[in-house]
C-alpha cells in the first residue's frame, strides 16, 4: 500500500487542522481549526484531543464545542511579526504640517 500525499495539506499547521477537524467530527470547520493550529502549540492541541477522545460520556456532536471551550486554559504562542509589536506610524496631513494649519486659522 502506497501512501498518497494530500496536496492541500502543505504545512504542519494544515495537517494538524485536518487531524483535529476530522477527529472531532467537524470537517467543514477546517478553517477554524487552522487558525487554532497557528495560535497554540501542537503538542498541547494533540494532548487536548486525546483527553477529549477518552471522555466516554461526551456525545460526538459536542466534541467540537468542548474542544473550543477547553482552549481557554491553554497558553497561546507569541506571534512573531505581529502588528501589536510594531510602533504606530505617524499620520500624514496631505503635505501640510501642523504649523501651516495653525497659521491659516
Straight-line N-to-C gap: 81 Å
Share of helix among residues? 40-55%
What's the gyration radius in Å? 23 Å
**Outline, from the CA principal axes?**
elongated
The helix/strand order is HHHHH
- Give the overall average pLDDT: 81
- Low-confidence runs of at least 5 consecutive residues: none
Structural class: mainly alpha
Q: How many E-type strands? A: 0
Walkthrough of the structure:
It is a single chain. By secondary structure, the protein is mostly helical. It has a domain at 10-75. It is 48% helix and 0% strand. It has five helices and no strands. It is elongated and about 75 Å long. The mean pLDDT is 81.
Could you write a compact summary of the structure shown?
With 105 residues, this protein is mainly alpha-helical. The chain has helices at 12-23, 30-39, 42-54, 63-70, 98-104.
Give the key terms.
single chain; mainly alpha; 0% strand; elongated
Write the layout of secondary structure elements.
Blueprint: H1 12-23, H2 30-39, H3 42-54, H4 63-70, H5 98-104
